[in-house]
Amino acid sequence: MADARLRRRSVLTGGALLAAGAPALLVGCSSSDEPGDESGDDAGEPAASTTPPRLEDLDLSDWEVVRGQFALDPELAHFAAFVLASHPAPVRAAIERWRDAFDADPAATVAGELAHDEEVRTAAAGYLGVRPAEVALTDSTTMGLGLVYHGLPLCPGDHVLTTTHDFYATHEALRLAAARAGAEVERIALYDDPAAAGADELAGRVAAAIRPQTKVVALTWVHSSTGVKLPVRAIADAVADANAGRAEADRAILVLDAIHGLGADAARPGDLGCDVFVSGTHKWLFGPRGTGIVWAAPAAGAAVAPTIPSFTAPSFVNWLTGGDEPSPFGVGNTPGGYQAFEHRWAVTEAFAFHQAIGPDRVAARTQELATRLKDGLAELPGVRLVTPRDPALSAGLVCVDVAGRDPAEVVQQLLDQRIVASVTPYSEPYVRFGASIVTTPEQVDAAVEAVAGLAR
């Protein structure tokens, strides 16, 4: 009986420590709390099997130095690197260090889970200009959208507004959530010709479609179907106007799929005016594959009920003690269970890498290369530029129709010339290029020349 009381007391003590922020949860006994303790290393830092590059020792003002941090095949022009990231050297080194730590002592390494998750939240918050407690950790944009749309308190008769241009992940998450709640999902077109889209038209069509019953406006910052970048601030202002005079429970919230903006555009959630910002970190940010984040403003976050149990305080402690303390949005909506922690915890280095380069410089470089590419492609006979030439309405994605030819065939013929492009995964497919920090002006010119040859 005494042994049973001791075991119960130990568990509850662990729960109390957890509630206070102690980095220990559901782990076995170990001779050390963090990897590296036995050798006297700082707590929480895994023993390094390779020496990572020191960002302060790199001249990241030189774009060739930036490109040199990637292990991409130098014989290829990588205009599809945004689809799933290649890891820059600091991220690769961090993944390797964490993997080695788990292989050496998994119990000790996972004991630091809460602290290392918080380091990722802090890095993301610093980049986004928000509070760490407002950031949930996920494995992808798709997971984040599912968590948000299934966590919102939709009711029969509620109206959810989205567009025909959004990706499957948004459409399907909304369909499933609305079917369960009895809500209506409406899809509207924001433009007829993407290349001719204007900011006033884009914002105006959203504003005109908002009803008194609208509870969610679900949009994508940069459309992967066309490369159109929405004027999110103007749309957020239209949503705010529609909310004027509404009770708090009746307000519409603006949820943004930000996957093709994060790491390509320097705007932050506060600049954009959205209520919820959902993104993977493994595309334009070039973070670890299988990682993502969700940020929610306090009022919006309070309305999102967790869908997958979190293993962190207070929810886990509530289970232990019978309590009912609510969880902050960030930890409460970070799905529990063991993760690929070596990737999750290396997200910190991805944000640090972009911060060291400078988000504004990254955005300017992306825009410079995309503009060069659009200008070149727009002059080619037989090539129709789908993406707006206006830099305010596009980011790094550039989509084209090449002489009415099958986009998959064009992409294959480009690959034969060592140029890696992609096909938009939509019912109306286009050839798609992604100009980013791993491409060069010379490669942009080579891509234009190759497309010119295929269009003849």
From TrEMBL:
Cofactor(s) recorded in Swiss-Prot or TrEMBL: pyridoxal 5'-phosphate
PANTHER family hit by this protein: CYSTEINE DESULFURASE, CYSTEINE DESULFURASE 1, CHLOROPLASTIC
Entry's family note: Belongs to the class-V pyridoxal-phosphate-dependent aminotransferase family. Csd subfamily.
Keyword Nucleotide-binding assigned: no
Aminotransferase class V domain: residues covered: 118-420
Ranges of Acidic residues composition bias in the record: 34-44
Organism: Jiangella rhizosphaerae
UniProt entry keywords in alphabetical sequence: Aminotransferase, Pyridoxal phosphate, Transferase
Protein name from the UniProt record: Aminotransferase class V-fold PLP-dependent enzyme
MF terms in GO: cysteine desulfurase activity; transaminase activity
Spans annotated as Disordered: 29-55
Enzymatic reactions: (sulfur carrier)-H + L-cysteine = (sulfur carrier)-SH + L-alanine
